[in-house]
Predict the structure.
Amino acid sequence: MTRLTGSALRVTVFVGENDTWHHRPLYSEIVHRAHAAGLAGASVFRGVEGYGASSLIHTTRLLSLSEDLPVAVVIVDTEERVRDFLPVLDELVTEGLVVLDDCEVVRYEGKRSL
């Protein structure tokens, strides 16, 4: 199990729910590549409303239902490991936003085996 405490780097990737990589959801490809790279963890969050570089607003509101809602993939690990993963994101993310933030990991624990 990966141990992670103290200073870390968070990468957040903002893409559209309908963005794909070889007929697979892009957010899923990012998570699977992060897992294969041994990064500490990744989570995907679906937005209820947003817009990006295209300036088109995507929303879940009933009168203007969008099928391409914003999605954020968040990955946290050491700075070195996250920076080593950036070329993968450069390959995968052709439209979207990739943001890096310094952060501090206070607790990172998995479920304990019985």
Summary: The beta strands are 6-16, 20-21, 24-25, 42-46, 49-50, 58-59, 70-77, 97-105. The chain has a mean pLDDT of 88. The radius of gyration is 15 Å.
